[in-house]
Amino acid sequence: MKKIIKNGLIVTAADTYRANVLIENGKISAIGTHFDEDGAEIIDAKGCYILPGGIDPHTHLDMPFGGTVTKDDFETGTKAAAFGGTTTVIDFCLTSKGERLKNSITTWHNKSKNKACIDYSFHLMVGEINDEVLDELPQVISEEGITSFKVFMAYKNVFQADDETLFRTLLTAKDLGALVMVHAENGDVIDYLTKKALEEGNTDPIFHALTRPPEAEGEATGRAAQLTGLADSQLYVVHVSCSNAVEKIAEARNKGLNVWGETCPQYLVLDQSYLERPNFEGAKYVWSPPLREKWHQDILWNALKNGQLQTLGSDQCSFDFNGQKDLGRGDFTKIPNGGPMIEDRVSILFSEGVKKGRITLNQFVDITSTRIAKIFGLFPKKGTIAVGSDADIVIFDPNVERVISAESHHMAVDYNAFEGMKVTGEPISVLSRGEFVVKEKQFVGNPGSGQFIKRAKYGDELSEQGRESLQSTQI
Ligand code: URP
Ligand code: ZN
Ligand code: ZN
Ligand code: ZN
Fold this sequence. Notes:
Pfam families: Amidohydro_1. This protein is of the alpha/beta class. The protein folds into 2 domains: 3-51 and 385-397 and 425-471, Urease, subunit C, domain 1, CATH 2.30.40; 53-375, Metal-dependent hydrolases (TIM Barrel, Alpha-Beta Barrel), CATH 3.20.20.140. The protein has helices at residues 74-83, 101-112, 131-142, 163-176, 187-199, 206-210, 214-231, 243-254, 265-269, 296-306, 345-354, 361-375, 464-473, and strands at residues 3-6, 9-11, 16-18, 20-24, 27-32, 41-44, 49-52, 54-59, 64-65, 68-69, 86-93, 119-125, 148-152, 179-183, 234-237, 258-263, 311-312, 393-403, 422-432, 435-439, 442-443. The longest helix is centred in the middle third of the chain and has 18 residues, at 214-231. The structure holds N-(aminocarbonyl)-beta-alanine and zinc ion (3 copies). Residues 60, 183, 287-288, 315, 317, 337-338 line the site of N-(aminocarbonyl)-beta-alanine (URP).
Protein backbone atom coordinates (compact mmCIF):
# COMPACT_ATOMS: atom_id res chain seq x y z
CA MET A 1 0.00 0.00 0.00
CA LYS A 2 1.25 3.46 -0.80
CA LYS A 3 2.00 5.78 2.09
CA ILE A 4 1.94 9.57 2.29
CA ILE A 5 3.85 11.47 4.96
CA LYS A 6 2.09 14.77 5.56
CA ASN A 7 2.52 17.96 7.56
CA GLY A 8 6.21 17.54 8.33
CA LEU A 9 9.32 19.54 7.52
CA ILE A 10 11.71 17.72 5.17
CA VAL A 11 15.33 18.16 6.20
CA THR A 12 18.18 17.04 3.95
CA ALA A 13 21.90 17.85 4.01
CA ALA A 14 21.12 20.73 1.66
CA ASP A 15 17.60 21.98 2.32
CA THR A 16 14.81 22.46 4.83
CA TYR A 17 11.32 22.74 3.33
CA ARG A 18 7.70 21.85 3.82
CA ALA A 19 6.34 19.14 1.52
CA ASN A 20 4.68 15.73 1.58
CA VAL A 21 6.38 12.48 0.68
CA LEU A 22 4.76 9.74 -1.39
CA ILE A 23 6.08 6.23 -0.83
CA GLU A 24 5.44 3.38 -3.25
CA ASN A 25 7.15 0.01 -3.56
CA GLY A 26 9.66 0.84 -0.85
CA LYS A 27 10.89 3.99 -2.55
CA ILE A 28 10.16 7.69 -2.45
CA SER A 29 8.11 8.06 -5.62
CA ALA A 30 7.25 11.75 -5.36
CA ILE A 31 7.70 14.83 -3.19
CA GLY A 32 5.00 17.46 -3.49
CA THR A 33 2.13 19.33 -1.94
CA HIS A 34 -0.88 17.38 -3.12
CA PHE A 35 -1.25 13.65 -3.68
CA ASP A 36 -4.30 11.52 -4.27
CA GLU A 37 -4.95 9.99 -0.87
CA ASP A 38 -7.34 7.28 -2.05
CA GLY A 39 -6.11 3.95 -0.73
CA ALA A 40 -3.05 5.50 0.89
CA GLU A 41 -1.88 5.13 4.47
CA ILE A 42 -1.48 8.65 5.83
CA ILE A 43 1.37 9.33 8.23
CA ASP A 44 0.95 12.57 10.12
CA ALA A 45 4.32 14.20 10.81
CA LYS A 46 2.92 17.37 12.34
CA GLY A 47 5.52 19.17 14.43
CA CYS A 48 8.19 16.74 13.23
CA TYR A 49 11.12 16.64 10.84
CA ILE A 50 11.18 14.15 7.98
CA LEU A 51 14.81 13.00 7.93
CA PRO A 52 16.69 10.50 5.77
CA GLY A 53 17.37 7.44 7.91
CA GLY A 54 20.66 7.60 9.75
CA ILE A 55 23.58 5.54 8.47
CA ASP A 56 25.98 4.17 11.05
CA PRO A 57 29.29 3.53 9.30
CA HIS A 58 30.94 1.83 12.27
CA THR A 59 29.44 -1.07 14.21
CA HIS A 60 30.70 -4.30 15.74
CA LEU A 61 27.72 -6.62 16.14
CA ASP A 62 28.17 -10.21 17.30
CA MET A 63 31.93 -9.68 17.32
CA PRO A 64 34.36 -11.88 19.25
CA PHE A 65 36.84 -9.77 21.21
CA GLY A 66 39.02 -10.25 24.30
CA GLY A 67 37.81 -13.78 24.98
CA THR A 68 34.13 -12.89 24.80
CA VAL A 69 31.54 -11.77 22.22
CA THR A 70 29.74 -8.42 22.03
CA LYS A 71 26.39 -8.48 23.78
CA ASP A 72 24.42 -6.96 20.92
CA ASP A 73 24.07 -9.04 17.80
CA PHE A 74 22.50 -8.17 14.47
CA GLU A 75 19.00 -8.53 15.90
CA THR A 76 19.22 -6.49 19.10
CA GLY A 77 21.77 -4.10 17.60
CA THR A 78 19.75 -3.20 14.51
CA LYS A 79 16.53 -2.96 16.53
CA ALA A 80 18.21 -0.49 18.89
CA ALA A 81 19.68 1.34 15.88
CA ALA A 82 16.19 1.75 14.42
CA PHE A 83 14.83 3.15 17.69
CA GLY A 84 17.66 5.66 17.50
CA GLY A 85 16.82 6.75 13.96
CA THR A 86 19.37 4.66 12.07
CA THR A 87 18.22 2.62 9.05
CA THR A 88 21.54 1.31 7.70
CA VAL A 89 24.61 0.00 9.49
CA ILE A 90 27.99 -0.91 8.06
CA ASP A 91 29.58 -3.56 10.25
CA PHE A 92 33.20 -4.71 10.34
CA CYS A 93 33.78 -8.22 9.02
CA LEU A 94 36.83 -9.56 10.86
CA THR A 95 39.35 -11.82 9.14
CA SER A 96 42.08 -14.10 10.46
CA LYS A 97 45.51 -14.67 9.01
CA GLY A 98 45.54 -17.62 6.65
CA GLU A 99 41.76 -17.74 6.34
CA ARG A 100 40.12 -17.19 2.94
CA LEU A 101 38.42 -13.79 2.82
CA LYS A 102 35.38 -15.49 1.31
CA ASN A 103 35.01 -17.62 4.46
CA SER A 104 35.19 -14.60 6.75
CA ILE A 105 32.53 -12.86 4.69
CA THR A 106 30.31 -15.95 4.80
CA THR A 107 30.69 -16.00 8.59
CA TRP A 108 29.46 -12.39 8.72
CA HIS A 109 26.55 -13.10 6.36
CA ASN A 110 25.52 -15.94 8.66
CA LYS A 111 25.62 -13.67 11.71
CA SER A 112 23.36 -11.09 10.06
CA LYS A 113 20.88 -12.79 7.74
CA ASN A 114 17.51 -13.59 9.34
CA LYS A 115 18.46 -11.19 12.13
CA ALA A 116 18.88 -7.64 10.87
CA CYS A 117 15.79 -5.43 11.12
CA ILE A 118 17.31 -2.70 8.90
CA ASP A 119 19.62 -2.77 5.87
CA TYR A 120 23.30 -3.39 6.37
CA SER A 121 26.63 -3.71 4.65
CA PHE A 122 30.15 -4.77 5.60
CA HIS A 123 33.66 -3.38 5.65
CA LEU A 124 36.38 -6.02 5.38
CA MET A 125 39.35 -6.17 7.75
CA VAL A 126 42.68 -6.62 5.96
CA GLY A 127 45.24 -8.07 8.38
CA GLU A 128 47.82 -9.28 5.87
CA ILE A 129 48.71 -8.79 2.23
CA ASN A 130 49.91 -11.83 0.30
CA ASP A 131 49.19 -13.46 -3.06
CA GLU A 132 45.99 -15.14 -1.85
CA VAL A 133 44.62 -11.92 -0.41
CA LEU A 134 45.58 -9.93 -3.53
CA ASP A 135 43.87 -12.60 -5.58
CA GLU A 136 40.65 -12.42 -3.63
CA LEU A 137 40.24 -8.67 -3.12
CA PRO A 138 38.92 -7.88 -6.64
CA GLN A 139 36.02 -10.31 -6.07
CA VAL A 140 35.32 -8.82 -2.65
CA ILE A 141 34.55 -5.62 -4.52
CA SER A 142 32.89 -6.87 -7.69
CA GLU A 143 30.94 -9.81 -6.29
CA GLU A 144 30.35 -8.92 -2.66
CA GLY A 145 30.00 -5.17 -3.10
CA ILE A 146 32.30 -4.61 -0.14
CA THR A 147 34.27 -1.53 -1.10
CA SER A 148 36.05 -0.53 2.10
CA PHE A 149 38.96 -2.27 3.83
CA LYS A 150 39.91 -1.81 7.48
CA VAL A 151 43.47 -1.86 8.74
CA PHE A 152 44.26 -1.81 12.47
CA MET A 153 47.42 0.08 13.47
CA ALA A 154 46.89 -1.00 17.12
CA TYR A 155 45.97 -4.09 19.21
CA LYS A 156 49.43 -5.64 18.93
CA ASN A 157 49.43 -9.42 18.50
CA VAL A 158 45.68 -9.38 17.89
CA PHE A 159 44.54 -7.25 14.94
CA GLN A 160 47.54 -4.97 14.36
CA ALA A 161 48.98 -4.82 10.83
CA ASP A 162 52.44 -3.50 10.02
CA ASP A 163 53.16 -0.46 7.84
CA GLU A 164 53.93 -2.59 4.78
CA THR A 165 50.46 -4.10 5.03
CA LEU A 166 48.88 -0.68 5.41
CA PHE A 167 50.85 0.75 2.50
CA ARG A 168 50.12 -2.17 0.17
CA THR A 169 46.44 -2.07 1.15
CA LEU A 170 46.40 1.62 0.21
CA LEU A 171 48.01 0.84 -3.17
CA THR A 172 45.59 -2.02 -3.84
CA ALA A 173 42.59 0.06 -2.82
CA LYS A 174 43.67 2.78 -5.20
CA ASP A 175 43.80 0.25 -8.08
CA LEU A 176 40.53 -1.44 -7.22
CA GLY A 177 38.42 1.55 -6.18
CA ALA A 178 38.14 0.89 -2.47
CA LEU A 179 38.46 3.09 0.61
CA VAL A 180 40.99 2.18 3.31
CA MET A 181 39.84 2.71 6.88
CA VAL A 182 42.30 2.86 9.75
CA HIS A 183 42.15 2.44 13.49
CA ALA A 184 44.95 4.92 14.01
CA GLU A 185 46.87 4.41 17.25
CA ASN A 186 50.54 3.45 17.55
CA GLY A 187 50.15 -0.14 18.76
CA ASP A 188 53.85 -0.72 19.50
CA VAL A 189 54.15 2.31 21.78
CA ILE A 190 50.88 1.41 23.51
CA ASP A 191 52.08 -2.16 24.00
CA TYR A 192 55.24 -0.90 25.72
CA LEU A 193 53.38 1.60 27.94
CA THR A 194 50.83 -1.03 28.88
CA LYS A 195 53.41 -3.60 29.94
CA LYS A 196 55.22 -0.94 31.96
CA ALA A 197 52.01 0.10 33.74
CA LEU A 198 51.22 -3.48 34.72
CA GLU A 199 54.79 -4.04 35.94
CA GLU A 200 54.39 -1.00 38.16
CA GLY A 201 51.17 -2.40 39.59
CA ASN A 202 48.90 0.07 37.81
CA THR A 203 45.93 -2.13 36.99
CA ASP A 204 42.86 0.15 37.30
CA PRO A 205 40.66 1.13 34.31
CA ILE A 206 42.13 4.67 34.18
CA PHE A 207 45.45 3.18 33.06
CA HIS A 208 43.74 2.10 29.86
CA ALA A 209 43.55 5.80 28.98
CA LEU A 210 46.94 6.75 30.39
CA THR A 211 48.73 4.09 28.33
CA ARG A 212 47.03 5.19 25.09
CA PRO A 213 47.97 8.90 25.00
CA PRO A 214 46.66 11.31 22.33
CA GLU A 215 50.17 11.48 20.85
CA ALA A 216 49.93 7.78 19.94
CA GLU A 217 46.73 8.54 18.02
CA GLY A 218 48.11 11.70 16.42
CA GLU A 219 51.29 9.92 15.31
CA ALA A 220 49.45 6.99 13.71
CA THR A 221 46.94 9.31 12.04
CA GLY A 222 49.74 11.38 10.55
CA ARG A 223 51.62 8.26 9.42
CA ALA A 224 48.53 6.83 7.72
CA ALA A 225 47.87 10.16 6.02
CA GLN A 226 51.45 10.40 4.74
CA LEU A 227 51.31 6.86 3.37
CA THR A 228 47.99 7.71 1.69
CA GLY A 229 49.68 10.64 -0.04
CA LEU A 230 52.59 8.42 -1.11
CA ALA A 231 50.17 5.82 -2.52
CA ASP A 232 47.95 8.53 -4.04
CA SER A 233 45.11 6.62 -2.40
CA GLN A 234 42.16 7.32 -0.11
CA LEU A 235 41.79 7.05 3.64
CA TYR A 236 39.03 7.19 6.25
CA VAL A 237 40.18 7.54 9.86
CA VAL A 238 37.66 5.93 12.23
CA HIS A 239 36.84 7.06 15.76
CA VAL A 240 38.92 10.25 15.98
CA SER A 241 39.07 11.18 19.67
CA CYS A 242 41.53 14.05 20.05
CA SER A 243 43.01 17.28 18.87
CA ASN A 244 46.27 15.55 17.83
CA ALA A 245 44.45 13.43 15.22
CA VAL A 246 42.21 16.28 14.01
CA GLU A 247 45.35 18.34 13.29
CA LYS A 248 46.83 15.58 11.14
CA ILE A 249 43.61 15.08 9.18
CA ALA A 250 43.21 18.81 8.62
CA GLU A 251 46.83 19.06 7.47
CA ALA A 252 46.35 16.22 4.97
CA ARG A 253 43.10 17.68 3.65
CA ASN A 254 44.71 21.10 3.28
CA LYS A 255 47.29 19.44 1.04
CA GLY A 256 44.46 18.05 -1.08
CA LEU A 257 44.73 14.43 0.07
CA ASN A 258 41.66 12.21 0.09
CA VAL A 259 41.48 11.82 3.84
CA TRP A 260 38.20 11.63 5.76
CA GLY A 261 37.63 11.64 9.51
CA GLU A 262 34.93 10.16 11.71
CA THR A 263 34.27 10.88 15.36
CA CYS A 264 31.82 9.22 17.77
CA PRO A 265 29.26 10.56 20.25
CA GLN A 266 31.21 9.31 23.26
CA TYR A 267 34.20 11.57 22.43
CA LEU A 268 31.91 14.58 22.05
CA VAL A 269 30.25 14.37 25.46
CA LEU A 270 32.24 12.10 27.83
CA ASP A 271 35.77 12.56 29.11
CA GLN A 272 38.69 10.70 30.68
CA SER A 273 37.48 11.28 34.25
CA TYR A 274 34.76 8.65 33.67
CA LEU A 275 37.45 5.97 33.77
CA GLU A 276 38.23 6.96 37.34
CA ARG A 277 34.76 6.11 38.66
CA PRO A 278 34.89 3.95 41.78
CA ASN A 279 33.95 0.29 42.20
CA PHE A 280 35.39 -0.61 38.81
CA GLU A 281 32.63 1.45 37.12
CA GLY A 282 35.40 3.05 35.04
CA ALA A 283 35.44 -0.18 33.03
CA LYS A 284 32.12 0.83 31.46
CA TYR A 285 34.04 3.59 29.66
CA VAL A 286 36.96 1.52 28.40
CA TRP A 287 37.28 1.59 24.61
CA SER A 288 39.96 2.54 22.12
CA PRO A 289 40.97 5.22 21.50
CA PRO A 290 40.14 6.18 25.10
CA LEU A 291 38.12 9.12 26.35
CA ARG A 292 40.26 12.27 26.49
CA GLU A 293 40.58 15.31 28.71
CA LYS A 294 37.49 17.46 28.31
CA TRP A 295 39.10 20.26 26.29
CA HIS A 296 39.42 17.93 23.27
CA GLN A 297 35.62 18.02 22.93
CA ASP A 298 35.64 21.64 21.71
CA ILE A 299 38.20 20.73 19.05
CA LEU A 300 36.04 17.82 17.83
CA TRP A 301 32.86 19.92 17.70
CA ASN A 302 34.69 22.63 15.85
CA ALA A 303 36.09 20.07 13.38
CA LEU A 304 32.57 18.78 12.65
CA LYS A 305 31.38 22.33 12.16
CA ASN A 306 34.14 23.37 9.79
CA GLY A 307 34.29 20.06 7.90
CA GLN A 308 37.69 18.81 9.05
CA LEU A 309 35.77 15.79 10.37
CA GLN A 310 32.85 14.69 8.23
CA THR A 311 30.98 11.83 9.87
CA LEU A 312 29.71 10.37 13.13
CA GLY A 313 29.96 6.61 13.70
CA SER A 314 28.87 4.85 16.86
CA ASP A 315 31.69 2.29 17.17
CA GLN A 316 28.96 0.17 18.77
CA CYS A 317 30.80 -2.64 20.55
CA SER A 318 28.82 -3.53 23.65
CA PHE A 319 29.82 -5.67 26.59
CA ASP A 320 27.85 -6.14 29.79
CA PHE A 321 29.33 -4.53 32.88
CA ASN A 322 28.47 -7.68 34.85
CA GLY A 323 30.19 -10.73 33.44
CA GLN A 324 32.08 -9.15 30.54
CA LYS A 325 33.76 -5.88 31.57
CA ASP A 326 34.39 -7.80 34.81
CA LEU A 327 37.01 -9.89 33.09
CA GLY A 328 39.39 -6.99 33.63
CA ARG A 329 39.16 -6.65 37.40
CA GLY A 330 42.75 -6.45 38.59
CA ASP A 331 44.11 -6.03 35.04
CA PHE A 332 42.76 -3.25 32.81
CA THR A 333 44.21 -4.92 29.69
CA LYS A 334 41.61 -7.68 30.09
CA ILE A 335 38.61 -5.33 30.02
CA PRO A 336 36.89 -5.95 26.67
CA ASN A 337 37.19 -2.71 24.69
CA GLY A 338 34.03 -1.03 23.49
CA GLY A 339 30.76 0.62 24.42
CA PRO A 340 27.04 0.62 23.58
CA MET A 341 26.49 3.61 21.31
CA ILE A 342 24.32 2.55 18.37
CA GLU A 343 21.03 3.79 19.83
CA ASP A 344 21.96 7.28 20.97
CA ARG A 345 24.28 8.39 18.14
CA VAL A 346 21.72 10.48 16.24
CA SER A 347 19.96 11.92 19.32
CA ILE A 348 23.18 13.07 20.92
CA LEU A 349 24.36 14.86 17.80
CA PHE A 350 21.00 16.56 17.46
CA SER A 351 20.65 17.54 21.10
CA GLU A 352 24.23 18.54 21.84
CA GLY A 353 24.98 19.76 18.31
CA VAL A 354 21.93 21.39 16.72
CA LYS A 355 20.04 22.40 19.87
CA LYS A 356 23.16 23.91 21.40
CA GLY A 357 24.02 25.81 18.23
CA ARG A 358 27.28 23.98 17.49
CA ILE A 359 26.22 22.72 14.04
CA THR A 360 23.29 23.45 11.74
CA LEU A 361 20.29 21.20 11.18
CA ASN A 362 21.48 20.42 7.65
CA GLN A 363 24.99 19.61 8.89
CA PHE A 364 23.43 17.21 11.38
CA VAL A 365 21.76 15.30 8.51
CA ASP A 366 24.98 15.35 6.49
CA ILE A 367 27.13 14.07 9.38
CA THR A 368 24.78 11.26 10.45
CA SER A 369 23.57 10.15 7.00
CA THR A 370 24.19 11.88 3.68
CA ARG A 371 27.96 12.23 3.73
CA ILE A 372 28.34 8.69 4.96
CA ALA A 373 26.21 7.44 2.03
CA LYS A 374 28.39 9.41 -0.38
CA ILE A 375 31.73 8.29 1.06
CA PHE A 376 30.73 4.63 1.25
CA GLY A 377 29.00 4.18 -2.12
CA LEU A 378 25.40 4.08 -0.90
CA PHE A 379 24.18 7.35 -2.39
CA PRO A 380 21.50 8.14 -3.58
CA LYS A 381 19.84 4.83 -2.72
CA LYS A 382 20.48 5.75 0.90
CA GLY A 383 21.24 9.01 2.67
CA THR A 384 18.69 11.47 1.35
CA ILE A 385 15.03 12.31 0.84
CA ALA A 386 14.77 12.34 -2.94
CA VAL A 387 12.62 10.80 -5.65
CA GLY A 388 14.00 7.34 -6.40
CA SER A 389 15.75 6.89 -3.07
CA ASP A 390 14.83 4.09 -0.69
CA ALA A 391 12.08 5.19 1.68
CA ASP A 392 14.39 4.97 4.72
CA ILE A 393 12.80 7.77 6.68
CA VAL A 394 12.77 9.02 10.26
CA ILE A 395 9.90 11.08 11.65
CA PHE A 396 11.77 13.04 14.28
CA ASP A 397 10.21 15.19 16.99
CA PRO A 398 12.77 17.94 17.71
CA ASN A 399 11.13 19.09 20.93
CA VAL A 400 10.57 15.95 23.00
CA GLU A 401 12.80 15.72 26.03
CA ARG A 402 13.94 12.43 27.45
CA VAL A 403 16.57 11.01 29.77
CA ILE A 404 18.87 8.31 28.41
CA SER A 405 18.86 5.17 30.54
CA ALA A 406 19.59 1.47 30.38
CA GLU A 407 16.10 1.01 31.88
CA SER A 408 14.49 2.21 28.68
CA HIS A 409 17.09 1.57 25.96
CA HIS A 410 16.70 -1.26 23.46
CA MET A 411 20.25 -2.57 23.38
CA ALA A 412 20.83 -5.94 25.04
CA VAL A 413 23.64 -4.61 27.21
CA ASP A 414 23.21 -4.00 30.97
CA TYR A 415 24.31 -0.34 31.15
CA ASN A 416 24.22 2.84 29.12
CA ALA A 417 27.33 5.01 28.92
CA PHE A 418 25.12 8.13 28.75
CA GLU A 419 22.96 7.13 31.75
CA GLY A 420 21.04 10.13 33.12
CA MET A 421 21.86 12.44 30.24
CA LYS A 422 18.97 14.69 29.15
CA VAL A 423 18.48 14.95 25.39
CA THR A 424 16.04 16.91 23.31
CA GLY A 425 14.66 15.33 20.15
CA GLU A 426 13.58 11.76 19.48
CA PRO A 427 12.67 9.53 16.54
CA ILE A 428 8.93 8.81 16.70
CA SER A 429 8.55 6.52 13.69
CA VAL A 430 11.15 4.92 11.46
CA LEU A 431 10.66 3.36 8.04
CA SER A 432 12.99 1.01 6.22
CA ARG A 433 12.30 0.75 2.49
CA GLY A 434 8.78 2.05 3.10
CA GLU A 435 7.88 -0.33 5.93
CA PHE A 436 7.62 0.73 9.56
CA VAL A 437 10.29 -0.66 11.83
CA VAL A 438 9.31 1.67 14.65
CA LYS A 439 5.80 3.14 14.70
CA GLU A 440 4.87 5.70 17.35
CA LYS A 441 7.86 4.50 19.45
CA GLN A 442 6.76 0.84 19.25
CA PHE A 443 8.83 -1.81 17.52
CA VAL A 444 6.90 -3.29 14.60
CA GLY A 445 9.86 -4.53 12.55
CA ASN A 446 10.92 -8.02 11.62
CA PRO A 447 14.29 -9.59 12.23
CA GLY A 448 15.47 -10.75 8.82
CA SER A 449 13.76 -7.97 6.87
CA GLY A 450 17.04 -6.04 6.59
CA GLN A 451 18.83 -6.56 3.29
CA PHE A 452 22.55 -6.77 2.62
CA ILE A 453 23.48 -3.80 0.43
CA LYS A 454 26.24 -4.03 -2.15
CA ARG A 455 28.05 -0.71 -2.36
CA ALA A 456 29.59 1.25 -5.22
CA LYS A 457 33.33 1.54 -5.64
CA TYR A 458 35.02 4.50 -4.00
CA GLY A 459 34.62 7.57 -6.16
CA ASP A 460 31.81 6.16 -8.31
CA GLU A 461 29.14 8.78 -8.06
CA LEU A 462 26.25 6.36 -8.03
CA SER A 463 25.93 2.86 -6.73
CA GLU A 464 24.53 0.29 -9.17
CA GLN A 465 21.30 0.30 -7.20
CA GLY A 466 21.29 4.09 -7.10
CA ARG A 467 21.62 4.15 -10.87
CA GLU A 468 18.75 1.68 -11.27
CA SER A 469 16.50 3.64 -8.97
CA LEU A 470 17.15 6.86 -10.88
CA GLN A 471 16.44 5.17 -14.22
CA SER A 472 13.19 3.71 -12.97
CA THR A 473 11.92 7.14 -11.97
CA GLN A 474 12.85 9.00 -15.13
CA ILE A 475 9.81 10.44 -16.86
O1 URP B 1 37.25 -0.12 21.76
C1 URP B 1 36.77 -0.27 20.66
N1 URP B 1 36.68 0.74 19.85
N2 URP B 1 36.33 -1.49 20.28
C2 URP B 1 35.92 -1.87 18.99
C3 URP B 1 37.06 -2.18 18.08
C4 URP B 1 37.66 -0.94 17.52
O2 URP B 1 38.81 -0.65 17.78
O3 URP B 1 36.99 -0.23 16.79
ZN1 ZN C 1 -7.00 14.24 -4.43
ZN1 ZN D 1 39.02 0.73 16.31
ZN1 ZN E 1 35.32 0.02 16.05
